[in-house]
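note to self: the first set is below, dont mix up w the second
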Amino acid sequence: MKEQNNRKEQILERLKKIECLKAIERQIFNTNELPNELCLNNKEFAKLMGISELTALFMRRKGLINHIKFNSKNYLKISDIYTFLDTF
């Protein structure tokens, strides 16, 4: 249980860093193409969680985590990732 809490804390720490980096990226490139909320693509999400991209795909397909489709690409909102982490 302690190991699981440590893992969750590590993921939350990474999420905070990603939020900062994504905000900086938006300011630099001044892009409004993505939805207003910060998002990760499947590859970024898989890396964050320490899982394979295929596992991330299965999680989305089973409805374990919400995702949005934009320009034929799937994105996971940071708020949905936090919600997912709170449920486990």
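second set (the one i keep forgetting abt)
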Amino acid sequence: MIDRNNNGQFELEEIVGPAMAHPGVCGMPASFFQSHDRNHDGHMTPAEYYAEVRRPDIVYSDRMQLILGGKTIELVFPGKNHADDGTVIRAVSPSMVPRNEARFRRAFLPGPD
């Protein structure tokens, strides 16, 4: 999402407009906007957008190793090539090569996918 008019908040047109004007362009449905515009004033502030985001308990800046179920993975920050918060998961244990996020979640994270 992009604050296209630079007013510090999102409006419905900024969320659904690009996808409606150009099919295939990333966008969110109107229902996403309506569910996150918590006070229903037609504007979604950063506080409303991030209201359900939990701050991390552990952070890293360059790389960090984790041992999960006896298998070692490494979290690597690849730099700001796509986003400020990107992470690459590198399999350190030879028997472990996660092919995608869904397999990684099933292998290491509790609860439903």
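remember for set 2: The longest strand covers residues 63-68.
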